[in-house]
Structures are given as structure tokens and as C-alpha cells.
Amino acid sequence: MAMPENVSAPAPILRLENIGKTLGGKRILSSVTMEVDKGQLKVLIGPSGAGKSTLLQCINHLIPPDEGHIYLEGRVVDAARRSELYAFRQQVGMIFQDFNLFDHLDALNNVSIALRKVRGMNRKAAAERAMAELERVGLANRATLYPAQLSGGQKQRVAIARALAMDPKVMLLDEPTSALDPELVGEVLAVIRDLARGGMTMVMATHQMDFARALAHEILFMERGSIIERGSPAELLAPGSGTRTADFCSRLTDLCEECS
Amino acid sequence: MLESITTIIEALPYILEGTLVTVGTVFGAMALGLVLGVPMSVAQAYGAWPVRLAVGFYVWFFRGMPILVLLLLFYFGLFQLIGLNLSAFTASCLVLGMTSAAYQSQIFRGAIQGLPQGQLRAARALGMSDGTAIRTIILPQALRLSIPGWSNEYSILLKDSALAFVLGTPEIMARTHFVASRTYEHLPLYMTAGALYFVITLIGLKVLRRLEHKLHIPGYASHGPL
User: Fold this and answer.
1) N or C: which end of chain B has fewer CB within 10 A?
2) What are the φ and ψ backbone dihedral angles of A36, each rounded to 5 degrees?
3) Residue B222's closest chain A neighbor by CA?
4) pLDDT, position B183
5) Does the CA dihedral A51-A57-A62-A66 come out positive or negative?
6) Where are the domains of chain B?
7) What are the residue ranges of helices labelled H in chain A?
8) Can you tell me the distance from the alpha carbon of B119 to that of B123, in angstroms, rounded to the nearest whole number?
């Protein structure tokens, strides 16, 4: 009987294998491969149009990839089977740049609706769980407010609570602070930082380099649909390392300094 | 002058009975239009191309012909052809309802397609099936946004329902016409009929406005006071 390989080393939680995507004749992603281990924070950086957002949306098939495979805990995801796709998506939380809270529901129901409609929890249990998640992001006192009554930072924190309520194994964060006013960025990053420290597995596209430097286990630098550099923040961002990543980041920093 | 008033007073109970028929026709037709129009709008917004084509054809057919033609075509033609023996009232409800479905589907489709793309994306990302997402996320928002357009459809349909008199449906118009042709008091009688339509329109629009207010989401899709 053949023994499975690497019995001792657990499979990575998430594995992407040669993901490719062409849209309108344009190559958006070409053979992207990456592995995310439990508790890791991977940060995607790169110029706009590099494919970061498309890659994140390909992972949970909001944009179906044309090529490649996605594995969750070592098992390939067969997206052609609806029930399997829905079950997979429940385990992969997604945070969007523009929040995408459900505009007709208050904060509590934004968090509880999927618990009720997807998980089949009853109203009371779902509300209790939702309240606990809102507390975790510091918004228990905003539970009855509607998205239009919340600030950008609060909206994004509700969106994080909504994703957390589904007990995701991985979280995908697509530039979670890019649409926020500068003074609101901190409160959202603080929540994400706490998640990272609590051992949440995450893949995050961001331009917040200080955040990436401090917390990322690995930085993946994307350009024209490919990951062209990868490594720890220390390796990639060291002064004089001559990497594309360091060059890109110094230009970002220069830009910030010019502005301020 | 006195004679006119007497005629109106004498004819009023008879015509008011027609008001019930008119209101019944409009209610029936609006309800049928809603029940058919919502799935049609969803099919047109999210369906596969054969479904979209079928809905498009339906809408084109019912919007492309005068109601008068449709009423006569169905009542004396198509319903007979398939062996349906319907009362004039039922036939009016059905034809007006099917026509309204065509218009209502476009009101709802506009509202659905006006919602931010991210709503459906976020629902899918949580593991919702498209059906669940449409029922719990898309339609509750789209239907709210449809109320102003729906009020419009109501006021148009109410007045279109006057055409049902060509089938012999005993509604306001048919009864007014009947009395007028016997008493020759055209002016006061048609003024009465007009006033009745006026009042029913007003009440209906008030009710829908109140509904809009009641379903209003704080801070959402509102520009100025309601």
C-alpha cells in the first residue's frame, strides 16, 4: 500500500497552482503559484494593474480562473460542483476595498445574514454570534446602524466581522484600507493586526508598507500578472538589496513624503 | 342643472359598484404583474441567453401593442382558441396583468442593474448560492428602489383598466357609458367617472408613498426628505 508523502508535514492551508486568467484577450494572470501555511500573513504588493485584485478574486472563484488549481487543506477545489464551491467559499473570508456591506441591513444583520441563510442558524443564535464578532472589532455599540450611517473605517470593520462570523480558514483582503480617509486607516489596520497576531491565515493586497514590513511572513511582488519576487520583508526591503520590491517601496515612500 | 345632479345621485350607487370592479381589476393585474415581473427581471438580469431572449420577446410583444388590441386579441381570439372560457373580468385582469408584467419587469431590472456589483460579489464570497443571494440581498434592495416606478405603473394601469369596458367588464367606465347613453347627461357623468379615477389614483399613490417611507433604510438612496 502506498503511503501518502510527507505525513509529518501538514499540507498548506491554501495552495495555488499555476493560476492563469485572460480577460478580453489580455493576459491578467500567468501561472501564479503560492502556498499559504496556517497562521501566515502573505502580503501582495505591486503597481496597479499588476493583477493583485484579480488573483485574490480568482482564489475564491469570484472571477473563475482559466487555468490552474486551488487546494484547500490539500484537497483540490472542484468549482464546477456548486455545492463544493459554496462550501469552499464559506471557509475563505473576503474583504473588499469598497467594503460591499449589504446596504439594506444594519450592522448586526450584515454579520448574521450568512449565518442564517448559509449556515442555517436560527435568528437568535445568529444574532448572538454576530454581536460577539462586532464586539471583537469594537463595534458592538453600532449594531443597529445601517451602512450609510457608518464611517468608512467602521464599515470595513463590520465587513471583517461579517467574514469572521463564518469561521474562515483563510482570509483574503483586497486593499482593505485603500478607500479610507487617512485618519481611518489605523483603526482597520489595528483589527487586521490583531487577527494576524491571533494566528489568522491571511493573504492581503496592500500598499501599507510599514504594516507589511512589521507583520508579513512573506511579501509577494506582482507585476504584469506574475509574482516576480518573493521573500521575507527583511530580505526584500533591505536597503541596497536592489530588489524590485525595495525600489517600488522607496518610490511609494517618496511619494508619501512629497505629499506630507 | 338640478336634473344633472339628480342623474348623478341616482347613477352613483351603480357607478360606485363599478369602482369595486375597477379596483379589483387593477389589484389583480398589479399582483399578476408583480408575480410574473419579478422572476422575469431576475431572469433577464442573471439568466442564460435563451431565458433572456424569451423574456425579451415577451416584453417586446406586450409593450409593442396597444392594450385595446391585446384585450380584444386575447378575449375574442387566443383565450377562445385554447378553449378558455373566461369572464370579462377575469380576462381583463389576465391581459392587463400580463401587460403590466412586461412593464414591471423592466422597472425591477433597472433597479437590479443599478445596484452596485459588489453586493452580489460579497454575497457569493460568503458562500451564498446565487438564488439565496438574489432573494436575500438583491431583491430586498431592488424592490425598495422600484417603488417610485411601481407607483407610476399603478397610475397608468388604473387608467388603462378603463379600456376593459370594451370586453363588457362592468367597471367604472362601462357603467358610466351605459348610463350616459341612456340619459344623455354626458358632461356630469363623465366628470363623475373622472373624479372617481382621480380619487383612486390619489389614494393608491398615497399608500405607496407611505410604503416607500415605511421601508426606507436610514441614509440609503435618499436625497432630501421623504
Assistant:
1) N
2) -125, 120
3) A148
4) 86
5) positive
6) 20-170
7) 52-59, 82-90, 107-117, 123-136, 152-164, 182-197, 209-215, 233-237, 244-259
8) 6
Geometric angle at alpha carbon B203, from B197 and B206, rounded to 5°: 135
The three cell numbers of residue B133 are: 443571494
Q: How many CB atoms lie within 10 A of CB A72?
A: 20
Q: Distance (Å, rounded) from C-alpha A231 to C-alpha A237?
A: 9
Mean pLDDT of the A207-214 span: 90
Closest to A104 (Cα-Cα) out of B156, B69, B133:
B133
Q: Is A162 on the interface with B (CB under 8 A)?
A: yes
| Mean predicted confidence (pLDDT) in A182-191 | 92
Residue whose C-alpha is closest to residue A171's, from A205, A193, A194, A203: A203
Sequence-ordered alpha helix ranges (H) in A47-151 = 52-59, 82-90, 107-117, 123-136
Grid coordinates of A22: 485572460
Beta carbons of B190 and B7 less than 8 angstroms apart: no
A96 interfaces chain B, CB cutoff of 8 Å: yes
Closest by CA position to A252, among listed A90, A35, A45 = A45
CATH architecture of A14-101+170-259: 3-Layer(aba) Sandwich (3.40)
* Domain B20-170, CATH class in plain words: mainly alpha
List residues in chain B touching A: CB distance below 8 A. 116, 118-119, 121-129, 132, 136-137, 140-141, 144, 217-221
Residues present in chain A in total: 260
What is the SS3 assignment for A198? Answer: coil
Indicate whether this model's pTM tops 0.80. yes
Locate B215 and state its grid cell.
421601508
pLDDT band at B9 (very low <50, low <70, confident <90, very high): confident
